[in-house]
Amino acid sequence: MILIAPHQRNETVQGVKIVALPKTKNRLKRMFIVGAKAFLLALQQRAEIYHFHDPEFLPWAFLLKCIRRRAIIYDIHEDFPEFIPRRSPKLRKFSFLLTPSLRFLLEFFPSLFCDLLVLPTYSLQKKVNKNNSVVLLNLPTLFDFKNSSYSLHWYEKQYDIIHVGTLSVSRFQFMLRVAKYLKEQGVKFKWLFIGAPSSLRSWIAANKDKEFIDKHFQLLDWL
After folding, report:
1. What does pTM read for this prediction?
2. Which pLDDT value is given to residue 134?
3. Exposure string (b/e) for 160-188, b if CB count within 10 Å is 16 or more?
4. Largest alpha-carbon pair distance within the chain?
5. 132 burial type by CB count under 10 A (0-12 exposed, 13-18 middle, 19+ buried)
6. Which of 36, 114, 125, 207 is the most buried (most CB within 10 A)?
């Protein structure tokens, strides 16, 4: 297995060969400069299967398919057509145009040349509606712990749910709906968020559900 990804240097870790790409926060550089380099490196590998998950690599993946004629797997991590327009009030005004356009560019177009689309939810699969897609739920279930020798001391727990990672307002709004549903079902819970940015805190401070949020959620910058 060969991994072409942002990294400090070329090296092999636990049998996986890492081919390093330069790191950059600039989206245009990632798409054109880093994307072009990743494309050229991918061409050199002459692999049987190419797997990618960054939508910015889609044009390069199309070229890779045309040249190499090998299997391409597109691993979609987000419902980008729904998520991107919600990033700002300005984009939200044009969501009626942006969402279907992004749905075509980021989901329908890839389905024409990719051999497999890997999706994170069944609801997204219904939107894609393609036979060449599978759903991979990237989360543990109770069955994963059934044969585990590790014992949790539930009586000592302080939180029922812990979320680690940067959280946008749109993602938190979804989790807030989940929390309200749990409340309606009579479930008692305490939810900890580690990595809540200042923008989310400002949104909560001005939100009508602040009292509910303060009761059931605790937000930390980082530990």
Report:
1. 0.69
2. 92
3. eeebeeebebebbeeebeebeebeeeeee
4. 59
5. middle
6. 114
